[in-house]
């Protein structure tokens, strides 16, 4: 049976207390391995290794640090098939999705930040004839990177890559639910030439290893992606120690369909933005608001495509919807489907578990589910479900759509479908969302700031924002 190890000071190591947790394949319901259930002792060893490695790593020229990160990107590309298989086995996502989205994007994270470090310029402020100020950005030191289970390697590397590029050393904790690709990354990082202790990976639960990491006095900054409640808890823990915090949290994203849009494109992309990765992407648009004059045509075309989605074995090439990540999460989604019925919703599609025959008979599969007739302020339309469940709601005018779109505590992303350029900008600027897509979804440019407003988070990732986060600005003022 597969036994994962921690990666501390450049070596694969068992957890100090020898405790492990089972690793489950959600598509089969079968245990296929064990992951360390690490504790504060493992975290402390990792922080010490990172602290010892920090002076040498920060002293390397940015070009040299970057070269190793680019090498790591190449190694991820070369091992794409192994990594994609591991991601699918761990998470239940279609293998085709892991091959085309998760793993390639993990590679681009390292490729991008490998070179970005060299473009991170020092600012100067000249006071003519008086003084010259220049701003140096020093790496903050040892940082924690904590990531969730939905896009395991993709989100893990999205944090690690800028931290390393900025000259920080990292202690990272993937979700204990999906640790396999992070484990495989350990070996690849050694092969890429990262010095021992520069990247440490400690496996374990949130309350165990995660909490110990957040509390550790040697950690100077925490980059966290996960649920809003966990983010609030981490903020409370970190605040008294004045650790820098970047929090990427939950979402309940609106998808606005105006009558003048390209309806075919809107339907096509809304299928993806509703159900990609079984709806388990923080950016999925789970509240679809459609202008009343095109509500019925949109609904008919959308439902026809929902019915055609194939739910099945993630390893089958024809599968579009894989397994939900765990039985507990499946039950949570099913409880929201019950709630939607109680709140008066009309079920238009799905709503049931799917029994996949053969090796997946014990897996956690769910039909893509669509409701209509739910008030924008009901719980189903306010709370994050994080599964393949969306609601359709007609609207009569722009202000109404905007009011409803902005009516949740979240503010991560939003999508707008229109051919009216003026409206696109007007609506985008009024949406309370850190990311707005117009006539597209999940379009990615690594230079842009990424993150949420309101309860969706604090700070921004991506491009220079991420490099700034992992550095401490110091102004030097020289009298002329
Ligand atoms: P959680 O908040 O449960 O967990 C996220 C990570 O934090 C996991 O590694 C978890 O460990 C760890 N953790 C849990 N408790 C603590 C703690 N006390 N101290 C330190 N670490 C802790 O989220 P999920 O894994 O369930 O992920 C789903 C959530 O993530 C959704 O709300 C989703 O919206 C959000 N998300 C946000 C994104 C964004 O960019 N804004 C992107 C993707 C997801 P473990 O799992 O091992 O217990």
TrEMBL record:
It comes from the Bacteria. Residues 19-476 form the Aldehyde dehydrogenase domain. The keyword RNA-binding does not apply. It holds the Pfam family Aldedh. PROSITE patterns: ALDEHYDE_DEHYDR_CYS, ALDEHYDE_DEHYDR_GLU. The active site is at 248. Keywords: NAD, Oxidoreductase. PANTHER family: 2-AMINOMUCONIC SEMIALDEHYDE DEHYDROGENASE. Belongs to the aldehyde dehydrogenase family. This is Aldehyde dehydrogenase.
